[in-house]
Amino acid sequence: MSVFIIAEAGVNHNGSLELAKKLIDVASEAGADAVKFQTFKAETLVSKNAQKADYQKENLNDGNDSQFDMLKKLELDVETHNILIEYCNSKNIMFLSTPFDLDSIDLLDDLKLPIFKIPSGEITNLPYLRKIGALKKRVILSTGMADIGEIEDALDVLTQAGTPKKNITVLHANTMYPTPMEDVNLRAMVTIGKAFDVAYGYSDHTLGIEVPIAAVAMGATVIEKHFTLDKTMEGPDHKASLEPHELKAMVEAIRNIELALGSSIKKPSKSEKPNMEVARKSIVASEPIKKGEVLTEDKLAIKRPGNGISPMRWDEIVGSIAQKDYEVDELI
After folding, report:
1. Residue 212: is the preceding peptide bond cis (ω within 30°)?
2. Topology given in CATH for the domain delimited by 268-332
3. What is the dihedral of CA 212, 216, 217, 218, to 10 degrees?
4. Non-local CB neighbours of 161 within 8 Å, separated by 6+ positions
5. Count of C-beta atoms within a 10 Å radius of residue 250
6. What is the pLDDT of residue 62?
7. How far apart are CA 321 and CA 323, in angstroms?
8. 4-261 CATH, one of 3.40.50.1000, 3.60.20.10, 3.20.20.70, 3.40.50.10490
9. Helix (H) and strand (E) counts for the chain?
10. What CA–CA distances, in Å, run from 330 to 67, 185, 285, 305?
């Protein structure tokens, strides 16, 4: 099964339908499997006095610290969802969106979304988890800020509500934008998979593309990564997002790593079989030998090519009788 790559547009559309369509174009051209937005109503997501995160204050730097005011401008209404879904279909890429409240879960379910992505911030939201679990859809659960016990609790809620564990992929994540390398802790991703016997992946907020590529090499089956049209655009997440050429490079690298991981069986590959004759060695005559002579060590040598008797049979050949005349370097 190939790695499912989610190009996370998030709120990088800045509230513009045209920008959202351009982001879909970029994700499709890069070869991502899905492009993901965010579905919320500012009124039900945050209280009026909730403050922005420090990175949001820093990235926006507009003197307004209200999360509500920032998010209100980034809402996508039902009509916009329908337009974007239709546009994704035309570009042969899956439309996904993360619901941030109960009404948004209903909206996305009405739109027949095949996968529900649970963001890190909702992993301790019991009514939210229960509502998604009851849909019995495929679920991708992000675990930023969570410990192993909280992940266990969330999985219990989802499965008890009706979603089979085989439908759930758990993403290791860190919610800092950008994530410092020393805080990535990729090994925790594998711990999650082993602890719960569940499919696992990685939602990346580091700068660059090497960490998600490493995650694939460690068994990730889903990769999620923020992208933008331009890192210098105004908005909370642009700076920690990939630009189009970087997204394309990440997808290409992941596809190469998938191929390189192979089957786990160790044997000569198709491409290297012709090299066996060239690079391996055979037992040859080191001096002229007459038929009937005993093949002693001083009469033999080991040289390329490898299309004669293998040197692994050295002990068997030494002390045997020559069945014919040999010239120097002739294969025994």
Report:
1. no
2. Type Iii Antifreeze Protein Isoform Hplc 12 (3.90.1210)
3. 100
4. 129, 130, 131, 132, 133, 134
5. 26
6. 60
7. 6
8. 3.20.20.70
9. 13, 10
10. 82, 58, 6, 11
Helices (H), 34-140: 42-45, 54-60, 67-72, 78-90, 102-110, 126-133
Which of these, 93, 47, 105, lies nearest to 72 by C-alpha position? 47
Rounded CA-CA distance 100/132 in Å is 11
Query: In the chain, what are the domain boundaries?
Result: 4-261, 268-332
pLDDT tens readout for residues 320-332? 999 999 999 999 9
Flag residues of the chain having pLDDT under 50.
none
Q: Which pLDDT value is given to residue 159? A: 98
Structure tokens at 222: 């889903």
Give me the amino acid identity at 22: K
State CA 75 to chain mean position distance. Answer: 28
> What span, in angstroms and rounded, lies between the C-alpha atoms of 257 and 251?
10
Task: Find, among 96, 86, 83, 76, the residue nearest to 5 by Cα.
Answer: 96
Cα–Cα nearest to 256, from 199, 210, 213, 209: 213
Establish how many alpha carbons lie within 13 A of residue 71's alpha carbon, considering only the half-sphere containing its beta carbon: 20
> 3-class SS at 204?
strand
DSSP 10: E
CA distance 198 to 155: 10
Structure-block tokens of residue 186? 């990729």
**Residues 6 or more apart in contact with residue 260 via CB below 8 angstroms:** none
Q: What is the pLDDT of residue 65?
A: 63
